[in-house]
Fold this protein.
Amino acid sequence: MAPSPNKTLHGHKLLVLLGVTGPPKALLGTGFRDEWIKELHELFPDLKIATVENVLWNTPEFKKKLPDKEWEDATILLTGSALPSPDIAPKLEYVQLQSAGANHVLDHPLIRDTDVTLCTASGVHGPQIAEWVVTTFLAFQHQITRYVDFQRQSTWHKLQEPVDDAVGRRIGILGYGAVGRQIARVFKALGMDIYVCNLHPRPTSESRRDETYTPEGLGDPEGIFPRKWFSAGDTAGLHEFLSSGLDLLVITVPLTAKTRGFISRGELALLAERRAFVSNVGRGEVINTDDLIDALENGIIRGAALDVTDPEPLPDGHRLWSTKNLFISPHVSGNSSAYGQRVYEILKYNLTRLSEGRELTNKVNRKEGY
């Protein structure tokens, strides 16, 4: 049930926690800006706001900046992963994460044992991750790394292999959420055929719409770009998708009990017909690492780009480092100087919906894990 309208957010208090679980990150690297606080006060005159930045969670210094009494009337929390116990914050109604995933907090008592609304920052990563996917794929197709090597050797050398450009090729996106929809928009502009696969069926135009936060002009909120939709609700559905003649497979699904090891030896073998390129920007554990190495070394797939690995961080000397036709980056595809602004826009969007008595966006389904 949606809450009643409360235009000024009277009775609500927002706590903002930044950089309290470790070294400050680039998430909201400029801090919670004064102009954001000013704008929120203009939009919601009765909203109380308190911020704590770059002080380690539950240390004496943290408790000095945010004593327990500050939690007593807190109703809204913006945080990365730091969460209070339910008894410390009895009035908390809505937790806004700064991340697009929620698996790291699902077992916390506040989330596991209460009905506090939990929302992700889904939508914050779409532009930069889509750029990472298209960059790594095209760099492989155009053999950019080899030409960089020639440049370092001061050698003018033209490779004889023809380039397979993107036009008319088929991309399969496993996980058609906020990130997947922005990827589809970018690759559609390159002339590629879009196939998508979700964990649940989307048979109607209504079910194919995306209700999560989408910046204007980005993504695919109406679900119009894919030519064909698949469901990975069972193994047969996943295999039908992977057998559909993909030139590029992009994995964006979250990590859940169901998706762990989702892509293993049998699934990779289904990509052999067109020797698909595999890009993983979801979670490393979605792919069986040993099976991926074997598929690359044996030419079952033509190449891969991983921004996430299993294990992560990837240890020195791990087999993945020396696997052929593989690009690895250390979980950085979501980095952007605009990250903080986008998280703030999602928070503001949800506060507006709260003030209007509407359902919040990006709500986590605890049962599904995302």
In short: The radius of gyration is 22 Å. Confidence is low (pLDDT under 50) at residues 23-27.
